[in-house]
Write a structure and sequence with these properties.
The strands form two sheets. Strands 2, 3, 6, 7, 8, 9, 10, 11, 12, 13 and 14 form an eleven-stranded antiparallel beta sheet that branches. Strands 1-4-5 form a three-stranded antiparallel beta sheet, with no helix packed on it. It has two domains: about 5-60, no CATH class; about 80-100 and about 105-275 and about 305-320 and about 385-410, no CATH class. Helix 6 (about 155-180) packs across helix 7 and helix 6 runs parallel beside helix 9. The protein has helices spanning about 5-15, 25-40, 45-60, 120-130, 135-150, 155-180, 190-195, 350-365, 385-400; strands at about 95, 110-115, 200-205, 205-210, 210-215, 230-240, 250-265, 270-280, 285-290, 295, 300, 315, 320-325, 335-340. The chain has about 400 residues and is α+β, with helices and mostly antiparallel strands. It holds the Pfam family DUF4216.
């Protein structure tokens, strides 16, 4: 308190009269009102006594080992002890809501529900899991080489489309033949992934993963909080058109809103948690204003899931949380605000700063027509299947083994 007197003169000089900025009368009034409501006959309160009681409780709680206190209780979005061995197919996290039915009515939402996915949605979800599994990378290269050898006139764009459409079925048949031959390439992970997930999946409305809380758009309807904003940074190829033979590759931020949370079940052996989102078209619905802020418009969507080659799913572990703030000056446009994880602090290390600079530079490059070129076809996500491509797909479905024996390893 003696040291405080040194700053009073300086504060009065800089900030002006103290009664314009002093909180003591308000605090005193609130404590007096609170004490009056409790005791009625003794309208008094003491800030010092309140601090003293709080410090005494803190001092005592430090010596309580087996009791949950302010210092040892888990955080609100804690997910550390829900899964022991975390990996791609067993991510760390926990769903929100009540676990099972109780004998009385509660306001908590049901934790999970079981639904049956249609074939197209199940194929899209399963394909994304395969394309993000490092164990499947050799099989992907093998399948792409096979498509290119069957028809060398196809562009890279058409090869990628055929690869996305037919890889799941080809991968299942390929692993089945290698397993019959007793090949060492077929590990337990490859075997279970090739069999594919069950049609019955778990569906959640809320999930906590990586210390972040996510809600679907349906769950947060009517709430004042927002937990459905998602951004994911991916390394992808950019095609100017379906005939582009030299696509550009780079990291791009995709912005979306969470619509569904599903958990794929690979015959009880592995479980993959996926987020399905409404993704903003980065060519039409994403831009940067003159202040450097990222703006998105959900009237322009891509990867809606209507086409088999769309990718509406991402792994839950890849999602980062953001908020969308309404832009009052421009209708239907929202400002992107990146969220900070609780109890995680930026220590100013060089690596984290480099990552932030890369993300900002990627968005700037998009506007500069470096990664995404303006002449991109409006329907670049929907491919017109040519006659040569149909013949290749028919050969894959029919199991035509007319390939030369020297290339028999591919069948």
């Amino acid at each position: 308190m003696v040291h405080l007197l040194i700053h009073l003169a300086y504060e009065a000089k800089v900030a002006g009269p103290v009664h314009y900025r002093w909180m003591y009368p308000i605090e005193r009034f609130l404590f007096t009102l609170k004490s009056f409501v409790r005791n009625r006959a003794h309208p008094e309160g003491s800030i010092a006594e309140g601090y003293l009681a709080h410090e005494c409780l803190i001092f005592c709680s430090r010596y309580l080992s087996s009791v949950e206190t302010y210092f040892n209780r888990p955080s609100r979005n804690d997910d550390s002890d829900f899964v022991e061995n975390t990996n791609l197919l067993n991510p760390r996290g926990r769903p929100l809501g009540r676990k099972c039915k109780v004998g009385f009515n509660v306001k908590k939402r049901k934790r999970a529900s079981r639904i049956s996915l249609d074939k197209k949605t199940l194929l899209q979800a399963h394909r994304y899991v395969l394309f993000n599994s490092h164990n499947v990378d050799p099989f992907q290269k093998e399948h792409i080489d096979l498509i290119r050898r069957q028809n060398r006139r196809l562009s890279s764009y058409e090869v990628d489309k055929i690869h996305g459409r037919s890889f799941s079925d080809w991968f299942r048949e390929r692993v089945s033949r290698l397993e019959e031959q007793g090949s060492a390439l077929v590990t337990d992970d490859i075997k279970w992934l090739a069999r594919g997930p069950l049609e019955i999946v778990r569906k959640y409305s809320g999930y906590i993963i990586n210390g972040v809380r996510f809600h679907t758009k349906k769950r947060e309807r009517g709430l004042k909080t927002q937990n459905s904003g998602i951004v994911v940074t991916v390394k992808t190829k950019s095609y100017a058109s379906s005939r582009d033979k030299h696509p550009k590759e780079g990291q791009i931020n995709y912005y979306g809103a969470l619509t569904d949370i599903i958990q794929l079940d690979y015959s009880g052996k592995y479980k993959a948690l996926l987020f399905k989102c409404d993704w903003v078209d980065i060519n039409k619905g994403c831009r940067i204003d003159n202040l450097g802020m990222t703006l998105v418009n959900f009237n322009y969507l891509q990867h809606t899931g209507n086409d088999v080659c769309d990718d509406p799913f991402i792994l839950a572990s890849q999602a980062k949380k953001i908020f969308y703030v309404e832009n009052r000056t421009q209708n239907d446009w929202f400002v992107v605000v990146h969220a900070k994880v609780r109890d995680v602090y930026d220590l100013g290390d060089e690596l984290s700063n480099d990552v932030d600079q890369v993300n900002e530079q990627v968005l700037q490059d998009i506007n500069d027509n470096d990664l995404i070129r303006p002449e991109v076809d409006d329907n670049h996500d929907i491919m017109e299947v040519t006659t040569s491509m149909e013949s290749i797909l028919q050969n894959d479905e029919g199991g035509d083994d007319t390939e030369d024996e020297s290339e028999g390893d591919f069948f």
